[in-house]
Amino acid sequence: MLLNKINEVRAEVKRWRAEGLKVGLVPTMGALHEGHLSLIKRAKAECDKVVVSVFVNPIQFGPSEDFDKYPRTLEADTTLCDNESVDIVFAPNANEMYGGGRLSNDTLTYVCPPYFFVDKLCGKSRVGHFDGVCTVVMKLFNIVQPDFAYFGQKDAQQVIIIKKMVKDLNIPIEIIQCPIVREESGLALSSRNKYLSEQGKKDALVLNKILNNIKSCYKKGVTDIESLKETAYSFLTEKHELEYLEIYNCNDLEEQKEANDESIALIACRVDGVRLIDNIYFKEV
Ligand code: AMP
């Protein structure tokens, strides 16, 4: 069922709750692919009812980012959700979510995650991004009031920040983190892969190669973080504009001097002008 209005979703979920049903939420920005579908399938397997939100959230995009050209494919998304027997596709417009006013933190209440978690990785170049993410996720949590909410490890910093928000604000929702789905080539699926040329798709494999190489060096006994990071440079060419490559603790994004089984390597790199991110846990979780 496709719903656009907050009150309609609330009313439907209220009926489910009255029957004691377990509700799962999968927040997305649409342009659904197998990565999203893995979250949806897991939610369907673990919950009685599943809501998938499809909302390209304006307040998590910076002024020079791709909000206008972000792919919007609601019809195809709805068909994919129907095929998975999703109970509600919630696709509000910005007016429904935020009212007609100006979208800024002078006029709207924002949920802002702590500086320590945002002043690094994607948060460093995407100033305000995680304020926008936490604000919309908090709103979706309040609208749907799910028992479980599903997020991908693909956006590792995001899921760590959401878990922190849930803990700090005592939100009674369990966050389920799902593994990264990749193409056979190793490229992590992303709605932004649509912007890549055929050659760009090949060049983009470098992200995964760098991460796998770092992990295999760690497995062979290299633990010095700088030495591990340096192994990346032999893979990079003029086609790759590296934004960051970091190795942190996977639970709290603390810096480490020596890698261990709690380490995660995270990379952001532009290929063909498209900003891509990927990450790898040193020990699979
Ligand atoms: P997005 O539509 O990009 O906001 O993503 C919605 C959810 O899908 C987020 O929790 C993402 O982490 C997750 N996701 C996106 N791509 C993948 C992927 N390749 N594998 C697993 N989860 C993914």
Would you give an account of this structure?
The protein is of the alpha/beta class and 285 residues long. The chain is 37% helix and 19% strand. The chain contains eleven helices and nine strands. It has helices at 6-18, 34-46, 74-83, 94-98, 115-118, 121-125, 129-144, 156-168, 198-203, 205-219, 225-230, and strands at residues 2-3, 23-28, 49-54, 88-90, 148-152, 174-178, 240-249, 263-271, 274-281. The chain has a six-stranded parallel β-sheet, sandwiched between helices. A three-stranded antiparallel β-sheet has the order 7-8-9. It starts with a strand and ends with a strand. Adenosine monophosphate is lined by residues 28-29, 35-36, 38-39, 151-152, 154-155, 178, 180-181, 188-191.
Characteristics of this structure?
three-stranded antiparallel beta sheet; 37% helix; alpha/beta; six-stranded parallel beta sheet; 19% strand; globular; binds adenosine monophosphate; 285 residues; 9 strands
Our count of helices gives: 11
Gyration radius (Cα, Å) is 19 Å
Query: Oligomerization state of this entry?
Result: single chain
**How would you characterize the largest beta sheet?**
6 strands, parallel
The ligands bound in this entry are: adenosine monophosphate
What order do the strands of the largest sheet run in, or round the barrel if closed? 1-4-3-2-5-6
Strand-residue proportion: 15-25%
Class computed from helices, strands and strand pairing: alpha/beta
End-to-end separation: 34 Å
Helix proportion = 25-40%
- Per DSSP E runs of 2 or more residues, the count of β-strands stands at 9
General form: globular
Spell out the helices and strands N to C. EHEHEHEHHHHEHEHHHEEE
Instruction: Determine the mean pLDDT.
Output: 96
Question: Which spans of ≥5 residues are poorly predicted at pLDDT below 50?
Answer: none
